[in-house]
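Job type: complex structure
Entries:
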Amino acid sequence: MTNPRGARGGITGWGSYLPAYRLDRAAIAGGAGRGARVVASYDEDPTTMAVAALREMAAPGPDQFLLASCRPAYVDKTNATAVHAAMGWDPHCLSVDLGANQRSAAAALLAGHRTGGTVALADVTWGRPGSTDEAHGGDGAAVFSFGTEDVLAVVEATISLTEEFTDRWAVPGEYAQQWEERFGVGRYQDLIRRATAQLGAETPDRVVFASANPTLGRRGPGITGRLGTHLSPIGAAGTAGLGLALADALDQAGPGETLLVLSAADGCDALLLRTTDLIATHRRPLAVAAQLAAGRPVSYYWYLSWRGVIQPEPPRRPEPDRVSSPSAGRSVAWKFGLQGSRCEACGMLHLPPERVCKNCGAIDRMRPESVADRQGTVATFTVDRLAYSPSPPLIEAVVDLVDGGRLLVELADVAPEEIHVGLTVEFTFRKLFSTGSIHNYFWKVRPLR
Amino acid sequence: MTGIKDKVAVVAMGCTRFGERWDAGLKDLAVDAVDELLGQVPGVGLNDVGAYWFSTLDSGQSGMTLTNALGLQYRPVTRVENYCASGTEAFRNAVYAVAAGAVDSAMAVGIEKLKDSGFSGLMRNDPPADGTAAELSMTAPAAFSLLDPAYVARHGVSADDFRDAMTHVAWKNHANGALNPKAQYRSPVSKEKIASAPLVAGRLGVFDCSGVSDGAAAALIVPADRANAYTDRPMFVKALSVVAGSGRGVMDPDYDYTTFPEVVHAAAALYREAGITDPANELSLAEVHDCFTPTEIVLMEDLGFSARGRGWRDVLAGRYDRAGHLPVNIDGGLKSFGHPVGASGLRMLYEAWLQFRGEAGERQLEDPRLALTHNLGGRPGNCVSAMTIVGRGRG
């Protein structure tokens, strides 16, 4: 039960992101399910969802950032660097990925507490048609910042027990597999008993729980909180399950509450938190429950297409060009940070940035200006039914931003009939497409949520 | 600056049939266009021509594409490209070479072979980039479809009325092309069919978009005072103008997508050089870049044929029909004749050529004297406009 940061270190902020789409379980093969599962759009992945959650948290730049995902966008290359660039953080920051496994969610929380900084738990979960992961998986992200000042939830104690057994596993590139679930349930229940006994926590106000074992994840740890028990609100969600359960608990927690955070994945990890008075006045991020209550339907066909389970007939158009690394490397500030340039001689904002002013002709008299946090209005728009898109049609708008500036940009999470001139929109970080296995990250706009 | 007026003349032209020419490769199109041209000037061989300008968007690089196709012997040949304005660009450069006295004759040849790619619509050939440019994913129909809601919003015309005006443009140009043996599409199309066609982008249906086609056209240019040695009916160049935009419109909130500022600027310079002050009444015909139907409506205003905001009304009233006050795209336009990108600018000049010589068949106008050709490349907010004025006589 270690607490090397001192008795007052803990969570200083949190945020969550749920994608907009919902797949009706009744529409899935078999058609017997109820309710709906959360589905990331074709242009979302753990990297983009981590950015969305971090923008919701709106905390200052950290000196360490850990990204945990079972299905990272890249292996070999670090994904956290793209998140880092999109957030515009100072280079003096260790931004790295933890391993692609369920336990990295708890590991991120423990490491964040022990060494400070920010952590993101972001994941996309799906499986073969007819599988449990398909019907009861979920996509989303949760983020937490840790520190010793203005702490909202102090980490009073932690414990970790490690045990080797194969309950759920996957080989890279293949679907995850699950042994008979009751086997893992039994092992995990024993681990949970031992961990909580050694932690010595009294009945906590809230229990936060997630497990790599889907049955146990739905059933719960066998301990309930006085005020609430928070399981993954979106089902088996990889690393995001634990994160969203904790975010959901914090969304609802008042001051002076104890939270027992339990993760049953290849062992058992637990953190005992106590909220402070500051949580009562803290600016709350958009709540998990509110995001879950909203949503728009996606058909089973398009869900299968987005996840690559089926490959629909493409239009007779070439695939987009592969992104050039040197070119993208020179324009990181624009591509990831939406940083344009404003002419200091005449004030015209250039998106993308330029060296020569298109209004007054001044050369190299530009000041960088990022517009990612600005809202805009749709000046005009069109639905492009000819363009290549993983989910046609492409919808593009001319967007005029507050404080000047205009750009032509794609619209996300919206149907053509919902768009009109004058619609207010905000920026969202997305993956436009992947060609040559290089992911093309950039920004789109969507209506305000 | 003394200008180009009456310094050079076109003395021979050729133009292939435009369309899905599965039967013809680039070399075939080149030879067919040039063959027709040479037939009008017996005694002139390909190697007698002083220099060549060759326009193509994407069907070959280097002047060598043309020298190889035509077997030219140690000739100067320059390849030019300015998106869809390439054909006019080739003509312009050939004209300047002759006017400057650098050569005694020059030929402009525009060729495009789009139908070998297997893809629908125009392709792009962009250099490696960072993946953020909207043009990389947004097709040309989508870009030009932005004109429609913008025009409706700015000029208070009903969406239905503007849809009718766009339909009229497509109907007009198909009706004109039906009279043109070299056009890609040679049947009239009803307004009902046009208005109810499957959508491509925005409110633009398949008939609002010009076809993807193959074709070639060529023009032989000599000094004006030598023209009559080649033909008794030369076509004189009165003015040339090209304006390439800076890309400002796309990032400037003051650009409202109801006009092409590049066209307005190019037209002003063009009319000044030609000494034209009342284009709608001084021109006998105009060939304009109807890549998409809303484009033609906007061009009527940008070229000064219609008052700002009245273009749609004039179109519907038949002002630009074949029998109207100023026939626009009487040969079928891009819409019906087709749009092999590198050839289109020269194809427009070919119609003026036929009209001035009384060889336009069923499309023949009674007494044509001055023609305007207009070529547009790029997209609203960022385009290049290339234009000419040509005439039947000197002065």
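Summary: The longest helix of chain A spans residues 181-199. Chain A has two domains: 10-306, 373-449.
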